Amino acid sequence: MNRWTGIITGVAAAALLASGLAADEPKPGGSLIMASTQVPRHLNGAVQSGIATAVPSTQIFASPLRYDAEWNPQPYLAESWSVSDDGLTVTLNLVKDATFHDGTPVTSEDVAFSIMTTKENHPFKSMFAPVDSIETPDPHTAVIKLSQPHPALLLALSPALAPVLPKHVYGDGQDPKTHPANSAPVGSGPFKLVEFTPGEAVVLEKNPDFFIEGRPYLDEIIIRIIPDLSALLIAMENGEADLYPFMAESQAIRRLGEVDHLGVTEEGYAAVGPINWLAYNTKNEKLADPRVRQAIAYAVDRDFITKALHRGVSTTQRGPIVESSPFFNPDMPAYDVDLDKAKALMAEAGHGDGMELTVDYIPGPAEQQKNVAEYLKSQLKKIGIDVTVRAAPDFPTWAKRVSNHDFELTMDVVFNWGDPVIGVHRSYLSSNIVPGVIWSNTQSYNNPKVDELLNAAAVELDGDKRKALYDEFQMLVAQDLPIYWLNTLPYHTAYDKRLGNLPVSIWGTMSPMDEVYWKEAK
Amino acid sequence: MASYIARRLFYGLLLMVGVVVLNFLLIRLAPGDPAEVIAGEMGGATAEVLAAIRANYGLDKPLLTQLWIYITQIAQGDLGLSYFFDQPVSKLIGERIGATILLVLTAQFAAVFIGTTLGVLAARKPNGLLSGFVSVFATVGYAVPVFWTGIMLIILFASVIPIFPVEGMMDIRLRNADFLTKAVNVLYHLVLPAFTLAVIYLALYARLARASMLEVLGADYVRTARAKGASERSVLFRHALRNAALPILTVAGLQFGSLISGALLVETVFNWPGMGRLAFDSILRRDYPTLLGVLIIASACVVIANLLTDLSYRLADPRLKKEDEG
Amino acid sequence: MSEAAESPLLEAWRMFRRNWPAMAGLAILSVIILVTFYGAFLYQGDPYEIVWAPHEPPGVAPEFPLGTDYLGRDIVAGMLTGGAPTLAVGASAAVITMIIGILLGALAGFFGGWVDNLLMRVAEFFQVLPALIFAMVLVTLFSPSLTTIAFAIGVVSWPQTARLTRAEFLKIKQVEYVTAARAIGAGNLRIMWRVILPNALPPLIVSATLTVGVAILFEAGLSFLGLGDPNTMSWGLMIGANRDYILDAWWPVTFPGLAIFLTVFSVSLIGDGLNDAFNPKLRER
Description:
The complex is a heterotrimer. By secondary structure, chain A is of the alpha+beta class. Chain A is built from 15 helices and 21 strands. Chain A has helices at 3-9, 51-60, 108-121, 153-156, 167-170, 229-237, 250-257, 290-299, 302-309, 339-348, 370-380, 395-403, 420-423, 448-459, 463-480; strands spanning 31-36, 65-67, 73-75, 78-83, 89-94, 131-138, 141-146, 191-197, 201-206, 220-225, 243-247, 262-265, 274-280, 315-316, 355-360, 385-390, 409-415, 483-488, 492-496, 499-500, 517-518. In chain A, α8 packs antiparallel against α10 and α14 (448-459) runs antiparallel to α15. Chain A is globular. Chain A starts with a helix and ends with a strand. In chain C, α3 packs antiparallel against α4 and α7 crosses α8 (188-224). The relative contact order of chain C is 0.16. Mean pLDDT of chain C is 83; it is low at 1-5. Chains in contact: A-B, A-C, B-C. Chains B and C meet through α1, α6, α7, α8 and α11 of B and α4, α5, α8 and α10 of C.
């Protein structure tokens, strides 16, 4: 069965998350210390994207659905759901006994309020854009009305993207983006907030009234923020932290993999789809000619990046859709290294005597960004391009330059977020050239045929037809090359081997960890 | 004495107002629009969003009005809202200032105590081995970059001899433990950061103690004490050291500001959850209200430290006291 | 002040020459300066070029005696290139510090009264600011170039020089030859710069030397935090960039750190030597 048809037509199985894997009976109790280098601004994933907020947010807030490791939607706050044949109506039947941490029952009003709030405030505009209205015929039924079929809707109802907020807290008229409750959230998820020390720690404890009987197993989850990687690795090695998700640094993966009491897994990131790429400003006169962009592509050695710079932990990525996705088109040109061809293309484009370019990068994750930028400087010299690496002192500075199209080349990391409609379209649609907004179409790429294909794919409910649209889209952008895709980020989770039921669903730790437990007391 | 204290207090207050004004103007006049920074953190900026943010944070008012609002707010103990966390800056600083003060004071006391002892011992034999060691060590301690000492210690204690923790302030698992257990754990985590910070100053005090001791040991009253048959130890510690204490005290007070700067680097290296790291992170996030807040509080700490030094100096030196009363 | 001696500078130099730690400092510093500015002629290597496998330990590959960094770049090449900005910033920051400090200190000491009061309050004000944080603010606000860094260091470190200058001026102002100069009708400016300043120079020279050391440490600290000029290889930057990998590779942070230490160490040995040479009586200290 094709996986995407599963996403669309899936109707709830009776059982809550089949956990046939665990031979042992999970034991309740114990605390889990998670380590993170990322600093959450606040804990409300309805108005803030990104890993740092999503991990705590999904523990605190429940959502209509959640996903297993095979892209199948699973019941969560919605015990069952159905999609009408025309794809324009989605009905959610909510569990009856769910309450928020303050004791108020969770109703369809809260669900409707939350989805509309997310639609208006979340940076991923395409996620709920087709949602016209949500009807609430009774407290446990929510009916989502769509203006057009929206194949990504069910995925968008996941914990990371659609936290159900308490309407009685957030409906007070204050701006949800700066609502005081964002730092002291009340949700209906398996854990409730005890303490949030910005920039240092998030302390969560078991919600005893969680609507799934017997869960969560853990008594508490503490997220410790350790900005310095060496310090974080030491904390993991000596047991001061037990779980480190979103680990992408080769030395961390290798080092923690060698520690006796720790294991390392790649599972749990299927829905993230993180691509590391080199973006061109196609409006820049030096880069307007696709031949120059192709020349750079022929000069850059993806294998060198994944094997040497990333020590073999990351994998090459040829196109806009992650290669592990069913929508990926394997027929895309690979642009294998060919310096002669690159030089010829430069000459054809009238730059036989070389040119100067600058490359920006996101400050922070050096191995994926800065190091690759420095490699480009070294490598592009070979085809006569003199590259200046332009460092930004901080993320806001980089984001401002790139979002205002003040760049020539830039390194970037962009996530697929499970469905192309959510994470891919935004980078290529000409309607999404929005100065000031980062991770929009900052390349200023404009191809009417691509727009047409993407808009058709956004409303196509038939999986095979949708794939055909994306296949053609991928061939087109591979020719135009507004972006040269380099590799997928090698996200790994390091974990204490005594932990059971690791978070390995498609959303990994950006999904409730109510099933995680200690096999033996720590 | 009371009028002196009042004068000093008023003067310290004036200094603080100056600090506030200077930093405020500097940050507001600098290139870059804070509203865009905030919008960037939220995930995107349109003209309306920017306008709303400006209104929200009062960034649309004239500069002098903003300054006035800011000063009156600070007078009421309100340091404003962090751009990044949307939380009161005073809360963010409050959560961290204890860690910084603990680190700074521990390092300061360690440096003064060990340094002075070394200096006194060295002064006994001005040309002896220890004396030579103290002079060399003094120069070395001063010349080593503090962050590098920290990194070297981490390399050493993380893998070679793992006896001290090299990051953080407390094992977070002990969050609900009793006070004593927590205190012991914090002290255990404090060893390396405090030592790293103390190394620079240790040398300074050793040198200072040695110099003032040599001077004092040559003075008449010490010779008299010796002539009267006072033991060597009594001469060293009772007579001479008491007189060497004043310059050490003065320097200790003056070094407070530099200690806070050093603490920033040490906190960053050892992941110590203090104010210095908050300042550093705030710079990376362009979180100006928080940065301003840290600068003001850190300056206030220096002013208070100077004030206390001044007072203890007056109390310790009878001559100054008379002068003041006369 | 030994105005009776025929050439105080010559005498000081004689004293200095006999002080072996100071001479050692001078020798070390000379070598460091020669190597940083002329090393590129002896040792060919681009510090930005990826030339080898990452994290090659020192002493294994003969071409790369100090090993390679996280990208596989030659550490020796980095060390040779990274010294110049560090030294340049150190020296120019010291010059800026001295200019501001001497100017304001001289005015305060010479005129006294309200000028003195005002300037010393300003100095106190700058001493209250936590220097590193303030310098960080200046550097982030006004682009992280070498000039900004030197200027920022100067702005935060001048008060000490000013105090010293003021004290010297207060002292020398009372001395006979100043009164004499005034009697023959010398103007204020002339007395300040031609009569007093030369006599106040010895302690100021010592202080300037020490300021160079402080400035180098400061620059290293800022670069380490990633606030230095990112396009200029410097020792502090090398330590900061390699810091994430210290558990795997000790050498990329150790050698630049040693270089900074040796530089500041030699500078302060020289400073101590000068101090002794100018103040023979204080030698016992």
